[in-house]
Amino acid sequence: MSVKRIYKLDRVDNGDIMLWNLYCRTSATFKAKLYDSSAVYFDSRKCGVSKELQKIAEGCQKKGDGELKFEIIYAESASPAADINSRDIVRPDASLAGHTYNICVGDYSDAGYNDIYFSLVSWKEN
Question: What pLDDT, on the 0 to 100 scale, is given for residue 75?
Fold first, then answer.
């Protein structure tokens, strides 16, 4: 039975410049997608027993509508859990320059949170 997890990246606005990285070190099969209500920014599938998938330094400008979401669908998993952190990037005048997200996922019961790593940074367009 597949298991789906959706992580909302609600601080990324239309017009922001985005850069992301996806890395995994799990033998599990999964699908990962970054999207909003009108655009899919990437959609990748990792199959088989190969332990690594890397999507390094892809990026674009957010043009779609709605909240940005990162989705993972596991072909099978005991109980996926994630540790999520985010922070603002601020200018010296305290105005918002951008935002960062890091999502570390553990897809089995070892609680290592080191099976899938996704990071995204977004900057406001000047």
Answer: 80
In this structure, are residues 74 and 2 in contact, taking their beta carbons and an 8 Å threshold? yes
Structure tokens at 85: 């952190």
- Which residue range(s) make up the domain with 104? 3-123
Q: What's the count of helices (H) and strands (E) in the chain, helices before strands?
A: 0, 9
Positions of the chain with pLDDT under 70 = 47-57, 77-78, 108-112
DSSP 108: S
Q: Which residues pair with 72 in a beta bridge?
A: 5, 32
Residues 6+ apart with CB under 8 A from 99: 11, 12, 86, 87, 88, 89, 121, 122
pTM: 0.86
Q: Which residue carries 């190969």 as its tokens?
A: 50
Structurally, the chain folds into a number of domains equal to 1
CATH number, domain of 103, equals 2.60.120.400
Count of CA atoms in the C-beta half-sphere (13 A) of 10: 4
> What's the confidence (pLDDT) of residue 89?
96
